[in-house]
Amino acid sequence: MKLKALVFVFLCCGTVYGQTVKYYLSMPKPQNHYFHVEMVLEGFNEKSIDVSLPVWSPGSYLVREFSKNINLVTATDGSGKELQLKKTKKNTWSIAKGKSSEIRIAYDVYAFELSVRTSFLDLTHGFVSGSGVFMFVEDHLDISGDVVVVPYDGFSEVSTALPRKERNKPFVFSYSDYDHLVDCPIEIGNQLIFDFKASGVNHTVAIYGEGNFEIETLKRDMSKVIEEETKVFGQNPNKEYLFIIHNVVDGQGGLEHKNSTTLSVNRWTYSGNSYVKFLSLVAHEYFHLWNVKRIRPFELGPFDYNKENYTDLLWVMEGFTSYYDELLLLRAGYYSQSEFLAKMESSINYVEGSVGARVQPVAHASYDAWIKAYRPNENSSNTTMTYYTRGSILAAFLDVKIIRNSKGERGLDHFLQHMYEKFYVKAARGFTSSEFKQELEGFTGENLDSFYADYIDGTAIPTYSDLFEGMGVSVTDVTSTKPDFGATLRSSGGKAIISRIRTNSAAEDAGLSVNDEIIGCNGYRVNKSDIEGVMRSLRKGDELDLLISRDEILFSVSFKMTNYAKPRFLLNLTNEENKLRDYWLR
What we know:
By secondary structure, the protein is an alpha+beta fold. Helices cover 29% and strands 29% of the residues. A 7-stranded mixed β-sheet has the order 4-7-2-1-11-14-13. Strands 23, 24, 25, 26, 27 and 28 form a 6-stranded antiparallel β-sheet that branches. Strand 25 and strand 26 form a beta hairpin. The N and C termini lie far apart (58 Å). 42% of the residues are buried.
């Protein structure tokens, strides 16, 4: 490859005490799904050096063991002499460099999982999520450097938020430290690229894959969302911002970065209600450039890439962002007040109607994201609650509280402005959980011990009618008690298989288990629709016999129907004019 001979001539980067870390990324044979990485270290005086690959990707709270995709790692000195290298941990290699002034580390990364947090390569394009591709030097995360991307011969574009080193060297990029490097995903291929300006910031969109989008429509609508978001904080911290969009069959959502984001959506998402959901995703990930990437818990940066980074504040980071991704569509004109209220009603009923919401406090959900949120099983609905949705309700709770206490003079926007100014702009650091609570109390003018005990560290259902009193919104509790089977079925080859069982349900009381096959009912053979129809016809106390197959062993079960009360609320706008509501739902 001709470019390879020139690559290291181009490499010139910032240093920390004369030390440099430089990366050379190539993809000579995309159909085998391997990125080739060469990592060049100069100026290190230690006799041995440890290099590691992160185990997780910031913004996605799960240890993904990226080193499973690494093949043989080799190390040589500047003259090409092989250096002794030993793997010392699951994601760490130790190099005995001796007096060598230059070390070259080479390895291949298997990349065949196209999501917003993992890397992918084939003959159509390449996507690099940096934490799964670029190793770092232990204890030297603050070193700056360069990345040279050598695209496959059939690829013509490289899109990344990393700044270009020089105009005449389009695929040589610089980074200020390792956090910066892995916070800038890279799209490589023949992607469609267009630009637009919003809130004084130049935005670039790089789209991989066909879809039913219209460029001018995207420019108009994404601009409106961005401008509404910028109004919340009064300033946009970026000069440039990059959207990488993957149009695929199975959309994976989005992942935030400091001045870019990756969105994975169904390729036909750009019309009707699906398009509004796309704009909500844009709003969500873009809002993170303030909330998470700059307003952040102390634990979320600088990162420890070798293990979990625990915080109990994801209900703020993701929950507040989920609240605003809908609220800002209202402000931008994509929802009416009634439609926004219907969205909130749906969120409330999803949370309060969940068994897990009475078991897992939202602070615990935040902390346990690493072990539960990304590893759901058949019992998750009984034991967990998403900090996204529950957090969005708590954000609305606090927004309304601030609006009411200030008589419509300020809201949650102003609290976020305060946090941005105090901790990001002035202190340049994150905050602790206790500091967040203290600032919130100072801003609301209330002691929030009971709020935290009930709703953050507890699982109580708020009195929604009291919350919205005086806000021009009526709340009706329509919780009803009715017969409920308590099991969810799936059909597999015509068989009725139990996929989920609610705690303390009739199904659990009868001794049914997940993966049981229901073969018969009262002497008759049944399928999924049959048994669901039977269950809908039963009243409390009705009994029947079920024939079950478990691990290919047949046995009978006596089933008795019981009632279940699932909390549910209706939210409606009242007829009278209301100043506080008009401020809140502006």
